[in-house]
Design goal:
Helix content: 25-40%
Shape: globular
Distance between the termini: 50 Å
Strand content: 15-25%
Radius of gyration: 23 Å
Largest sheet: 5 strands, antiparallel
Structural class: alpha+beta
Number of helices: 16
Low-confidence stretches: 1-19
Length: 468
């Protein structure tokens, strides 16, 4: 017989709003709950060894077989980079059925919020089967603005206008939103400030940090070199970087593995990266020493794991094959043909006028400039700049075939649907393109995630409701 227990901690929403600590006694009284508390203690310690020991001691055999310790550590490095430490703000629910689910709302030291759902075995010792982590909004009590699903384009535009105005009024969005139909903007508007210190507003031409959206440009560049016969998806990393410190990676990892995130190569995010002056990152190659000597997380091709390091190496391959810097190559072979005159990997101390600063909060009302958290220059994995109009030009170039993104076989993609997001502290961007519907959605924000992703996702959902 299934036993179902649902405990809704509605009182904790109020305690969060008024700054009181939530009642976590329910967690300390059950095995799985105690593991949750141990997880956050290990995460907040910043000690990778403690987090590793937690995984080994608390994850079920099934969970460890499905995903090993090393890829879990790499993922948590990224979470720590974005949120620093995490504080439980709300015990949302505890469910006991075939498995035990514990749902929590937590806030990072940088101000962002995450929804955690831990899943445990029902039987003692209730080891972890896994967990789900999703960016979410700060709790606002029981009052949430309601919007009617639009059925016509006119209703859609009116609803989006109201939605964005509400977000700005609550200081949840700063940036630019552009929605195009058949390559023509039907909605475009700027909100908030590009420079809070100087009180300079964002406008439709403001350039924003794209985060990982730059990976699209790297993928296009690799596709160009494949089509020109200069490289093959089967080429090994060692063919282009024979002195790469990890000899196993050099011998086994292919360009296909790198571009599809199946290389097992890790990330440059880590304690060494965070403790290094960001002013030292000026070239794509400056990122490589922060991961090149790490062991592979898995046998190349056997699993998939998000890898900034892999895309940095794709940039290094582009430089080796073309004899140009990564930045020069994409500028001349991608941005110039698409007439993207406001797109580049600008250096932090040499950004052109009308470039937005990024802002985040650290558990305090005031916004903090992210200049000390971002590298002086981005890489082939992300961190370049663009504006909404240039990204629309990129969409047009992809639809027309002037630029192409390779599929997993190295051939131009036949489908033209594309979605990409990028985010870090004070940075969030979203690019959605659908040739079948004719719509392109571009949201650029100089606030923390999920400011752009949340906004663009809602706009996409409303577009699907339109009948005309």
């Amino acid at each position: 017989m299934k036993i179902l227990i649902l405990i809704l901690m509605t009182f904790s929403i109020a305690s969060t709003i008024f700054g009181q600590s939530p009642d976590l006694s329910e967690l300390s009284e059950m095995e799985g709950g105690r593991r949750v508390l141990e997880y956050f203690k290990a995460f907040n310690s910043g000690d990778e060894q403690k987090l590793k020991e937690f995984f080994l001691n608390n994850l079920s055999t099934e969970a460890l077989e499905r995903r090993g310790v090393e890829p879990r550590l790499e993922f948590h490095k990224q979470v720590r980079a974005d949120f620093q430490t995490l504080e439980i703000k709300d015990l949302v629910s505890v469910k006991i059925e075939d498995v035990v689910d514990i749902s929590l709302l937590v806030q990072g030291r940088t101000g962002g919020w995450l929804a955690y759902t831990f899943t445990f075995e029902t039987a003692s010792p209730q080891k972890l089967l896994g967990w789900q982590i999703e960016p979410t909004e700060a709790p606002q009590g029981n009052k949430k603005p309601s919007y009617e699903n639009p059925k016509t384009k006119a209703e859609f535009l009116s609803t989006v206008e109201k939605y964005l105005s509400d977000l700005v009024a609550e200081d949840k969005f700063s940036g630019v939103v552009l929605v195009a139909q058949d390559d023509k903007p039907i909605f475009s508007k700027a909100y908030g400030e590009a420079d809070k210190e100087k009180k300079l507003p964002n406008n439709l031409d403001t350039k924003f940090n794209l985060g990982s959206i730059n990976k699209m440009f790297t993928r296009v560049a690799i596709g160009q070199l494949v089509q020109q016969g200069k490289i093959s998806f089967e080429d090994k990393l060692g063919k282009f970087l024979p002195d790469y410190p990890n000899t196993k990676a050099a011998e086994k990892v292919t360009i296909r593995h790198l571009i599809t995130m199946k290389s097992g190569i890790g990330d440059f995010f880590g304690e060494k990266f965070f403790s290094t002056s960001k002013d030292k990152f000026r070239q794509n190659s400056d990122y490589i020493p922060f991961f090149a000597d790490q062991p592979l997380a898995f046998e190349p091709g056997t699993k998939e794991q998000y890898s900034n390091g892999g895309y940095v190496l794709l940039g290094a391959i582009i430089e080796k094959v073309t004899g140009q810097s990564y930045y020069d190559y994409v500028r001349e072979n991608i941005f110039k043909p698409a007439e993207m005159t406001n797109t580049d990997s600008f250096e932090t101390d040499q950004t052109p006028p009308n470039t937005a600063n990024g802002y985040f909060k650290q558990n305090q009302p005031a916004w903090t400039n992210n200049i000390n958290t971002r590298p002086a220059r981005g890489s082939s994995a992300g961190g370049g700049y663009s504006n909404a109009n240039d990204l629309l030009k990129f969409s047009v170039a992809l639809k027309s075939g002037k630029l192409t993104i390779p599929d997993d076989e190295g051939k131009p993609r036949k489908d033209s649907n594309l979605g990409m997001a990028g985010g870090s502290i004070g940075i969030n961007a979203l690019f959605l393109m659908n040739k079948q519907s004719g719509y392109t959605i571009i949201v650029l924000s100089n606030y923390d995630p999920p400011s752009a992703e949340r906004t663009g996702g809602q706009i996409r959902d409303w577009l699907r409701q339109i009948k005309e």
